[in-house]
Amino acid sequence: MRRAAIRAAVVGGERLELADPGEIRQRSMRAFDRTFAITYVLELVALAIGLSGLSSSFGALVLARRGEFGMLRHVGMTRRQIGAMLATEGFLVSSLGLAVGLALGGIISLILIHVVNRQSFHWSMDLAVPWTPLAAFGAVMLVAASATAMASARAAMRDDAVRAVKEDW
Q: Is the pTM of the predicted complex or chain greater than 0.90?
């Protein structure tokens, strides 16, 4: 009823689009979701690039340490044990990277919320940290990093242990 009265009272009112606050909020959230959809794609690309970088760096590490692994094979370590050792190294390196990334991301979030929003847009918001999704993301990334390190190690350790030690001399 009020909408009809507003349209009748304003020149060109038939061209006005009127909405309740709830409708405006829904439209705004849909626009934000569409705007940030590319962000999720960029996150996936960054994850793929990071895992590729981890794989190539661990592959190079294994190739550089072939003599060491050959010697470990001579003293009784199995390929599986060496792979587990490299997976552990991948897990530890990735844990450090994940911790630094989450800490820096948290700091940037705080700056955006408490400084940039207030100075640029003259409003603020409450901070709500999604602990469960962050923990799940961290766990998935650590498992993926360990598996990537182990796979690249397995591919690089295909050579015979004697040949690896012989090449080192």
A: no
Element (H, E) at 24: helix 21-64
Structure tokens at 113: 């919320």
Q: How far is CA 116 from CA 29, 36, 103, 107, 122, in A?
A: 20, 18, 19, 13, 9
Q: 3: closest CA among 11, 25, 17?
A: 17
86-109: pLDDT as tens digits: 888 888 988 998 899 899 989 998
**Directed axis angle between helix 161-168 and helix 66-74, to 10°?**
130
| Token reading at 123 | 């409003």
Residue 1 pLDDT: 58
Any idea what DSSP says for residue 91?
A: H
* pLDDT score at 95: 92
What are residue 158's phi and psi, to 5 degrees?
-70, -25
47 class by beta-carbon count within 10 Å (0-12 exposed, 13-18 middle, 19+ buried): middle
- DSSP codes joined into one string, 29-45: HHHHHHHHHHHHHHHHH
